[in-house]
Amino acid sequence: MSExxxxxxxxxxxxxDLLSTIxxxxxxxxxxxxxARAVEDESTNIARAIDTIAKxxxxxxxxxxxxxxxxxxxxxxxxxECPPTxxxxxxxxxxxxxxxxxxxxxxxxxxxxxxxxxxxxxxCLTKDDVCVVISASGNPKYLLGVLSQxxxxxxxxxxxxxxxxxxxxxxxxxxxxxxxxxxxxxxxSRMKAGTxxxxxxxxxxTGAMIKIGKTYENFMIDLKxxxxxxxDRAIRIVSEIAGVSNTDSLKTLLxxxxxxxxxxxxxKCGLKKDEAKELLRKNCGVLRRALVSYALK
Length: 297
Known about the structure:
This protein has helices at residues 21-41, 43-58, 69-86, 102-105, 115-121, 141-153, 192-211, 228-242, 246-255, 260-269, 273-282, 287-295, and strands at residues 63-67, 93-97, 130-135, 156-161, 174-177. The protein is an alpha/beta fold.
């Protein structure tokens, strides 16, 4: 039998092809409940990873996700959500998948065995960056190639896997191993393993963005209001934090080109737009720090 736990047969689902539809659903859901507990078991390592990423962000570093198949797609998904959610440049968090952009939509299973391509794809890394390799099994040669190049660049390295015998765990500075056990369908790591990876990636970027001041309380104050839904959200955020009506929030947001943080400072501190911008600049763009500094004047 394979030493890769994600390839093991799940004793709890051997009869799944004989079950009624509702029992199939219940069986899958029963297995999914294992995922959150497995993620919880890795809380300390996830927190260490968040602190590493935040520290490198503050020195101008970037976060790169590398993966093949499902893992690569999940990295790209998480990276693509950072600009609209946190108002960061699209280069700050990037997802790279073995096989290139075509592999996002179409399966390209053989590419995970290409060590040299992994090295080539990782040439973008610098000493200030963080490289996160993602794999349920943790053994693709592509990712070993990525880590070989990452070592040459001197960047921080993190592995996210669901297999404690993963080869990538031996090659990184920090490992996160979320062991969710055998899949409902043997080897279908898009299921529990994929869910676990998505949960951890959510934590990595959200946690790091919180640490560098991209939120205030639990509001996404750096969001880019590019559509009606996000504009409505921006209005509600300003109203809630500044303690004013939606009408006043909209009026101020229109004055400052929909910058949520500037609008809040204008209202709470009685500042003009340029004064609010300058206060924010002096406090590295961190709203809480700007509000505290103004209160201490």
